[in-house]
Amino acid sequence: MSELFDAVDALVASRATLPPPAERKRLRAAHGLTIDEVAGALQVRRATVSGWESGKTEPRPPERDAYARLLDKLAELYPASPAPAAEGGPAPDVPVPATFAGAVPAPTQQQPTEPTETRPLSTGPATEAAGMTAPENTQTPATGPIPAAAPAAASRPAPATRSTPTSRRPGAKKAAPAGTQAGGTDPRFENGPLAVVDVEDGKVLAYGVGGLVLDVPAKSLPSLVEWTLKEAKLGQSKLSGPGRPADPLLVLTEAALERYGLPVTLTTEEKDAGRIPEGHKVIKQLTRADWKLTKRGFGPWARIYRPAKGSERQCVQLCIPSWNALDPRFWDHAAQLPPAELTRVLGTYATRVMTPRGSTAVTSLELMTALHPPTHAVRDEETGALRQAGTKTPGSLGSDPVDCAPPEAPNGHPVLNALNLPRFHVRGPSEMLFEEVYDWARPMTDAECTLRFLVGLDVNMAFGAGANGLTVGLGEPTHVMNPVFDPKLPGSWLVDLSHVDLSHVKAGKEWVELDDSLLPSPFTPKGDRPTGPAWYATPTVAYAQELGYDVTPTEAYVRYDNGRYLDGWYTRLRDAYLATMADLGVTTDLSPEDFLAAMDGYKSRDPELGIVITAIKATAKGGVGKLRERPRGEGWRPGERWRALERPTWRPDIRAAVISRTRINLHRKIVKHAAFTGQYPIAVLSDCVVYAANGPSPLDVVPYRDGKPLPGGFKLGVNPGLVKHEGTQTVLWGEEVREKFDAPDLNLARSIKDGTVSTADNGE
Which residues are CB-contacts of 341 (< 8 A; sequence separation ≥ 6)? Predict the structure, then answer.
């Protein structure tokens, strides 16, 4: 009889009632579950669950019964709300299975008792980003709650249902989102900063943050742009008073590209050009509709606009993942995510950093500009009316590019033409500023070879920490001969630092004796002791004074117009980083042991937020590099200007100052550590330093007494400027690698993370 019962149960399971595909996705997202988590629980592939949610396939026994059970329980927690009615008309009839129809969500601490549709919190003016800084070990509260970026383990408000009013517009009047104060959301951008446009079952849908899905009536790309600006209510509030709101961002999936007549992938020629041809039919459609493209054309990050009329700006940004808009070096596997998951990744980044405007490096510069707009409007004292914006905003770089000083110029820069250098002349340190990150290594001592492990420490957001509180030039340089060095004055200084002896330096207020043969010089990227005069940025020269030595520059290019331009940029990225790390379970209040445990596999707890972390770190690093962007094709020849020079944010002097301070910050910790413990690094690469130790843990390297770290030395923690575990290998591994490549000073920091070394590295 039991066999008959089993057969009956199996028969019932084979016809288990399931909600529609869209509802399946809503329920999963409402509980903060990823597709991978559901697939793991049901022991099926990720693509299988994705097919169930898109309606392309249906689950079969025995998984169907388990899947139905999961959805039934989620439906009890997150009942579906009826779609809101459009203005002036009744709500459309949307059939919902009886099992999943129901009342509004039960109120929680984050939800009002009135029926609401969950919306993301728009980013208002970033008052906290207007210059506020904190020391690197300060515990900083996370930014405001963001429904789309809640940790997977937390209970998340139910996402909004698809908006399908009869007018085909994206929304009737809706209540304020849960947890949002009155007036906290800009009504112009109530649907969030961006949307991922996809096509399902012949319908064009726009996936917004917080689970919102909008029907898109547009039949062509020009009409899609019109719909976005007039009806979609997408965009982001400005980040500072004189600034402007961010343009709405549309992310086009492959299906959307096909629908709107665009190629799914670019040809080799188009990839090289970075755009589709000017004669493409879609570009012709845009032209006929009076839409324009920026100079970079229709590429992976296309910007479509009409000239502004007064204060009204008409511009839509496109992101095309299949054209490599989301470079996997900076966005991991974001381009392969389904629309809802991709929306969550980009929406979280947009809300916490800003709406992407291009690569992470481009967005980083845009963030600097958004926090310090070049110009602002001025009120006429007689009429009281605001004049057109044109007055330089204090603390900004202004709207006009500034030429760098000759020693700050990279080779080929037109400012060098006046020097009449020989054609193949190679400038040395006395002619050119060489402020770069560390790439230094040394052979291990006999004592170090008796130890068992090599432990790598990595500085969190090192370039962000280097920018924090840094005074940089805002205007043009002034040439000065035989200046008196001022550590508070940003600039480039020609000075001889070869007399600085690292065997006898000041560490804080005390003189200490060190083994200088085991230390990199703080004055050169390769760690070699300088042999004569060289150009240095202010932080490097100031550090020579800090070590207890006099400095006497013979020449300088200084900037009397200066300020802490990067403070707001750092604060914004720091808060985004800490908030996202907290969502992943890594908070600022953890003990060293708990921090190391929390960092173990932290990205796997929520792979989507793991992508956001990667992008935030790439934004901090890429922006610094972009300050000295080199020619990228363009038919450029040495001595000619290139496109990047026309940006006010092309500032190699600011890049040099940040890198200088970042390198000096690390060297200061190395000196403190050596003076206190007698341990010296065997390799340093950018923000990673490797020590030999008896144990495999960073706690075997970083000294703690009574739970407190060495003042001024390395400290484990999540804050920018503190360190985390980069990786551990054995001393035997290090010796074998160096022997294999016949390179006793091979930089092991390059491979300490996973131990993979494919070829000898020449450091270039």
Answer: 34, 35, 608
